[in-house]
UniProtKB/TrEMBL annotation:
GO molecular function: RNA binding
Protein name: RRM domain-containing protein
Alphabetized InterPro entries for the sequence: Nucleotide-bd_a/b_plait_sf, RBD_domain_sf, RNA_proc/Spliceosome_comp
Domain of life per record: Eukaryota
Keyword line: RNA-binding
Organism: Oryzias latipes
Length: 75
């Protein structure tokens, strides 16, 4: 799935949970409520992990980066 499709599917899941009155403790949100993971894409493939760490560390503590999987993975 593309990132935009994933966002749409997550929004649909959120709406279904709200419509059904799903308890927060059993919602998928409770598993990730303390997580600081984000998806960021669209960077040039020439950038290294060090380049990205340098940029993001100016704004937030950055513990790790994952380059993803695929034919166009930079590292």
């Amino acid at each position: 799935f593309s990132p935009l499709t994933k966002v749409k599917l997550i929004n649909e899941l959120n709406e279904r949970e709200a419509d059904l009155g799903v308890n927060e403790k059993v919602s998928w949100h409770s598993e990730y409520r303390d997580s600081a993971w984000i998806f960021v894409g669209g960077f040039p493939y020439e950038l290294t992990e060090g380049d990205l760490l340098c940029v993001f560390s100016q704004y937030v503590p950055t513990a790790s980066l994952w380059g993803g999987v695929g034919a166009h993975t930079a590292y």
